[in-house]
Design a protein that fits this description.
Elements (H helix, E strand, L loop, with lengths): L1 H7 L7 H4 L4 E10 L2 E10 L4 E6 L10 E7 L19 E4 L2 E8 L1 H9 L16 H7 L20 H15 L3 E9 L8 H4 E9 L4 E6 L27 E6 L32 E4 L2 E8 L1 H10 L5
Antiparallel strand pairs: 1-2, 1-6, 2-3, 3-4, 5-6, 7-8, 7-12, 8-9, 9-10, 11-12
Length: 311
Amino acid sequence: MMSALNRSTSPAPPPNYVTYDRCCLRFNATFTDGGITRHVVITYYLEDDSMTIVEPPVPNSGLIQGKLLTRQRPKRNVDDYLVWEDIKFDRSVKINGRDYKITGCDDWTVDFYAKAGIDVPFNRPRSSPLNERQVSQHRPATPQRNSVSPESHSHKSNGSSSRKYKLRQYLEHDGHVLRFSCIWDRTYEGCFNSEEAREPCVLSYFLADDTIEVRKEKKESSYSPSAKSERNPFGPNQLLSEQIIIKRQRVKKASSYSNCASLMDEEDFDHYDPEDFQLGRTIELYGKRLRITDCDAFTRSFYEEHFGIRF
């Protein structure tokens, strides 16, 4: 009797989460919001009959875009949920109180509906007429009159072109440093000591990332050759370590600050570049006045080759 019962019982079909694991139906749809036609992508997960709705972001649209519906099972009515049979092509489907008109789908969705005996009138997203706002958003951006090409030494370009330029700048100028001898004028700070009022320092401009560092010049120890001390633990006739005046960083020009500086991005400020440093010129870095008096041989050749300036 048990063997006959086993022969008559057929195995149960596998559940949907096994048969349709990671299988999705993907639809293109539109809906109207305040006279604006907005385009979305509806994804239906066959394993648990859940859905997501995502609106591809359009730059400078002024709309809150992205994921409009997180993955969930939307209801068709009070007691029932939406299923894939409720999504009709070239017709509207109501999801959470909003009507979405199906305008297209992908090839896998076409095959799935064809196997279910449902005719699909298209398998490509249909081109929908764009309203006036969307047409203005899809127009190619016109170049600025005063735009600076990536070939020049500036940071006024944005987006991927700026990132590519910075990478190329790093690869071409890694290890290249412009060095200037400067005099730090501290008389305006109220320092009248003859030795401290005009301190010599070295300004280094790193071409790889346009950063600046200012250090005091190295000075030999003036201690007696007898013994070591806490201030000079290495003994006599040793070079003292340099004192950093401005640590390595990009320095903003004082003229670029405004009352809305807290709301400005880093690229909105005007930073120092190599053209701002020339012999005999006095520059102000974070309130410190530095007068450039000399430079090394590499700096002279760099300015003559790139700017046609001979020091």
